Here is the input.
Amino acid sequence: MVLNKQKLKAELLTEGENTCLPFHLHIFESVASTNKTLWELLAQERHWTEDGKFPSLKATNSDSRYVVIAAEQTAGRGQWGRKWVSSRGGLYLSSGFVPKLNINSGYQLTFASAWGIAEQLRKYGVDVEIKWPNDLILDGRKLGGILTETKVRDGKITQAVIGVGINWTNPVPSTGVNLDSWNNQGNSSKIYCLEKLAAVVLLGIDSGIQCLEEEGVNILLSRYTKLLSNLGEIVNVNGDFCGTVVGVTSTGNLHLLPLDGSTLSVKSSSIYLQPGTISLGYRESAD
Here is the structure.
């Protein structure tokens, strides 16, 4: 299922507040990875500003945000180099822009994108939550994920690519859910086609980044935390101790409060776990 470019533009105009589309859209049948393809396009792009930077998120140029969408990925990637199965029927999308962050703040982009996409989907009747740090879940099962990649120079993030995969009609494992099947199981959402889903995701990324840039990381984290499915969850860390999830930090760490009786090598009122330290599970489908 190849996404229709003109239909997507129409959906973006319908959903967006502006009549000018700030997206330069590239749509493919098949790519190895939408993130990889977008990086290659950015490297080839000649419309650079004088200081060598890609046009900013708020640039008035209608081509200010470059987007790659593919019907399938043959070598899709998830976090920490994990394989992302990307068969036809899903939404595989990458968006590139220039953020305003230092080198240690890359996870703020992931949090902003996750919150923005989830918030937009919820407006359309899809009660998405966020599983730390980068997954979108629906009824306890994985609906999609986000992969953020950046380039840095002089201690600053000079370019960022946000990759998003969302299950639409593609087959999923027992721990996953696709939105089309969910719609057909007595649920009611206003996402009726792949182009609508793509438009909502693109505008969700933009709204999340806008929140980060204009309102700051503390406001963003408070909104992200409200949709965090793991909030209040008791986590066992390698059999060493148990703690309750109370939030996240701006650098991406999961914030735990140890339970009474937990054994810690270093006594602390709080524990912070880096992404990749532990894996938080999913609900299995009963189908």
In short: Residues 5-226 form a domain with the BirA Bifunctional Protein; domain 2 fold (CATH 3.30.930.10). The two ends are 25 Å apart (CA to CA).
